[in-house]
Design brief:
With 144 residues, the chain is mostly helical. 59% of the residues lie in helices and 0% in strands.
């Protein structure tokens, strides 16, 4: 029984690498590898749109991973890599778009919605506080 469990475990371990999405060679430097992993997690797949290129198995995602690996190996900074991607694919490609005139609404909208909700709650509570208390509701509806 243990023999079959060990065989099954070894098969799972050996096939896990075949299921990996990013099959490109990694960097020897752990700092560069960490930068690469961080960047591919923050870039949206232009085909899938709801996945990062780290999690996508689309051909364009594989091309983008290769391109980011090349740019990092050439000594480009994270900002330069992001500039390259935005120039090529637009602000949509970044999960955290930059603060600019085109993305101003994306950055301000959550705060505006929170402010509008707070004002609405304040007005409802203030209105309800000014309403008279019905004596029938306090007595439980009992006749006197």
């Amino acid at each position: 029984m243990i023999k079959y469990a060990l065989i099954g475990l070894s098969i799972l371990l050996l096939t896990a690498s075949a299921l990996a999405i990013d099959t490109g060679e990694g960097f020897d430097d752990p700092v560069l590898q960490a930068r690469y992993a961080k960047l591919i997690a923050e870039v949206r797949c232009v085909t899938c749109q709801n996945q990062s290129i780290k999690d996508s198995n689309a051909f364009i995602a594989a091309d983008l991973r290769r391109e980011i690996r090349r740019l990092i190996s050439e000594g480009k900074t994270d900002a330069e890599v992001a500039d390259f991607l935005v120039t090529r694919y637009g602000d949509f490609v970044l999960y955290r778009p930059r603060f600019s005139g085109k993305t101003l609404l994306l950055w301000i909208a959550p705060f505006l919605l929170f402010l509008i909700g707070g004002i609405a709650i304040f007005r409802v509570v203030r209105y309800r506080m000014n309403q008279p208390i019905d004596d029938d509701l306090i007595d439980g509806g009992r006749a006197q």
